[in-house]
Amino acid sequence: MYGGLHMTIKTALPFCKILISAGLTMILGGCASNQINNDVSAQQSEYYQGKEILPFLAEQQAKSPEEAIQNADQAMSVNDSDRALFNYIRAYELDDQHSYALLRIGDIHYNRNNLAISYQAYQQALKLDPKLGEAYKGSGMILLHNKSYSMATTSFTQAIEYLQEQPEKQKPLLDSYIGLGIINDITGQHIQAEQNYKAAIKLDPKSPRVQTNLGYSYYMQEKWVNAESAFNKALQSDNSYSPAWKNLGLTYARQERYNEAIGALEQVMPISEAYNDIGYICMITQRYEMAALFLRKAIKEHPQYYTVAQQNLTRVKRLLASNPDGRSKL
């Protein structure tokens, strides 16, 4: 969530520690276990993190990078990401110039929120192939998550430069435009953000993710009509897209269209949360009496455990006491 509204570019958890597979500490007994432990390569120790590695080591190993990539791609096609990761590492083991293998290693770790390992793999891939647009995109996503906006901007810009030359790379190109747009919005460059989102829309006019981010950009500028239009376009493409419903509901609340706000928010959350969110919007826009009304409704729905609304209501009462003018902003 960003700025109270859902952003739709992929975010991740904080950096995970780089761990060597627990398989290295497993005791099987006898000389055979020692042989398997010795077979763990430096590349596997550096990049493997998943379920026990020993069963993969016990299998027939790929003899060439091409075979390893084929095995990895096949494993990915059936969502066996541990086996895929092992085989991408095997390809890199057999050919330390294999940038594609490193790219896929980075992708798997990114999807697992292992951002430190992922970034390391992307950067190593770029050392081997400085024009690898997908690795710039992946690096940009991690840098954006880490709030390194200047470096992320550079990465996304480089990604766009190289991916534009590859029509088959539409998805990472789309992500790069969205990433730039988010950074533009964060840094107050809303015109540039709109330009980047519209470039993404040209790639995929029906993407609810792009329309929702564009709508959020309008929301930040208090362009309510434009924001509402973008969120509705997102929902026309995917009526179950929850970030668009929530953002639309909050846009209605900012315009004091409370019944419509409740209707939109109820699509994706319990009514108590909807009341709390509307109450919060009223509070930050100094409509304190309306804030108190909705927060009390939230508490009434869940009086025993809805502590967030209780905390917000306490804050509203303090604000009302210190700023009676809030009573008239209904």
Put the structure in a nutshell.
The chain has helices spanning 30-38, 42-47, 54-58, 65-77, 81-94, 99-111, 115-128, 133-145, 149-163, 170-186, 190-203, 208-220, 224-237, 242-254, 258-265, 271-284, 288-301, 307-322.
Q: If you had to describe this structure to a student in words, what would you say it looks like?
A:
The protein is mainly α. Among the domains are: 17-21 and 40-112, no CATH class; 205-259, Tetratricopeptide repeat domain (Serine Threonine Protein Phosphatase 5, Tetratricopeptide repeat, Alpha Horseshoe); 270-330, no CATH class. Helices cover 68% and strands 0% of the residues. Mean pLDDT is 85; it is low at 1-6 and 8-38.
The total of helices stands at: 18
Roughly what is the average pLDDT, rounded to an integer?
A: 85
Order of helices and strands: HHHHHHHHHHHHHHHHHH
Weakly predicted, low-confidence segments: 1-6, 8-38
Distance between the termini: 27 Å
Q: Note the main sheet.
A: none
Backbone shape? elongated
Helix content: 55-70%
Question: Which band does the percent of strand residues land in?
Answer: under 5%
Radius of gyration: 25 Å
The strand count comes to: 0
Give the class from helix and strand content and strand pairing: mainly alpha
